[in-house]
Amino acid sequence: MLRRPDILAKFRGPGWCHVCGKFCSFRDACHVFSKGGGRVDAPFNLYSAGSFVQFVCVCHREEREHGPNWRQRLLTIVAEREKTTPEAIELAVYFCRWLPKHPTQAALEWRLEQLSADARKLVLPYLPGARHD
Any idea where the domains of the chain sit in the sequence? Predict the structure, then answer.
């Protein structure tokens, strides 16, 4: 689990919807992989969409209604932005979800070695105590 309100804030407020490209006066910080399985507040799991509460655009609501096919589209959008692959994003999210709350340095390093190089690049900046070799 990775809770980072500071990162969420960067995906809120006025700006462009990452899905439809419409300028929105207020955007929601949305998770590609929902918070239910373990919250991962990192750019590789976030996108901005116009707030459907304030009727700016329908992209956040669409995600809730279209499920897995929508997730694949969001993975593609976020992968392009982060200059990586959808597979690396998925591995990075599951890595963060499965990481023990207080892993030992040895356990953290071992788990990092199991990741692909692309997924490792995504998670390293958000792991306190991890070596950035």
Answer: 5-126
